[in-house]
Specification:
Blueprint lengths: L9 H17 L5 H9 L1 E5 L5 E6 L5 E2 L1 H6 L15 E4 L3 H6 L1 H5 L3 E4 L2
Parallel strand pairs: 4-5
Antiparallel strand pairs: 1-2, 2-3
Length: about 110
């Protein structure tokens, strides 16, 4: 198995920037404070083939795509201390569920129905 790249690797940084830029453009957001908030919430996961998956951690520890996070984001919703407990994965995010089988099995993540 190949070694997984960490968040500081140039390829991962490029993936994160492009993911955030695409979602912000779709929602017509150009504010630097929004980008900074998203960057503090990034969770990097890996699929079975070690392909990186970028998700954003919501206040209730739900892992969402950047697009879904921005759809439900309130204007005052800046990063806060995440609550304790397992990460919450929406049932419709099959890619993340498939990549998180071990975390789900050991109780570090749960699948929720929205």
């Amino acid at each position: 198995m190949r070694d997984r790249l960490d968040r500081t690797h140039p390829a991962i940084e490029k993936l994160i920037v492009s993911t955030l830029s695409e979602a912000m453009m779709k929602h017509a957001l150009t504010f630097e404070h929004v980008r900074n908030d998203l960057e503090t919430r990034i969770e990097l996961r890996y699929a079975y083939n070690n392909e990186p998956i970028v998700r954003i951690r919501a206040d209730d520890r739900t892992l969402l795509t950047a697009d879904h996070f921005l759809e439900g984001r309130s204007t005052s919703g800046l990063a806060s201390q995440p609550p304790f407990g397992p990460y919450r994965i929406p049932r419709h995010d099959r890619e993340l569920i498939d990549a998180s089988v071990e975390a789900i099995a050991c109780g570090a993540a749960i699948v929720i129905d929205n």
